Amino acid sequence: FANLTPSGQERFLQRVMEFMNQVDMVGREGMVVTDEIRILISASAVQLTFGLERSEIPTLQTINVFPSVFYSKFFNTNFKGLTTEGGILSISWNDFREGYANPTDRLNLGLHELAHALQVAIEDGFFDSDFTELFREWQETGFVFFQKLKNPILFLTAKMHLLCWEFMRSQYNLIQFIYLKQHYTKIKQTI
Fold this sequence. Notes:
Number of helices: 7
Number of strands: 6
Low-confidence stretches: 169-174
Distance between the termini: 41 Å
Shape: globular
Order of helices and strands: HEHEEEEEHHHHH
Strand content: 5-15%
Radius of gyration: 20 Å
């Protein structure tokens, strides 16, 4: 926010107000949804959508705010955050705040869950085809890097699939493909 121009800051704040008016935020398990909570969650949504022409996430209707990790009877497990296709996002307030406490750890529950909500809206056809295509490309590229963060072996597997796809697309010859496969096997053995 601090890096935006004054007009950009004004636009950001306007979008925060619009988001707050579009989505119902409900406290769960004794949680009281304060103005601070509404503003910070809304600012996260705007942070995610600020570069888009549309600031709203049309399929998102309700955000359930829990004090901490919560239990889902449907999934029979605990969650920090959960987004459904039915327009409901549920989030642990403690974990939401932790996501902004360390800006370099690459963990932000608010942005993560709101990205799922945005994905639902895209899949439901609420955004134009150009943005939808760019989002799908980003998903494919982001998947490889996400696997790298989670697990080096999974990353190498995803990377090998990507190399195979690139091979087919660019029509490398068979010798180059065999080299790539051997190179992948050597790297996997060193891990």
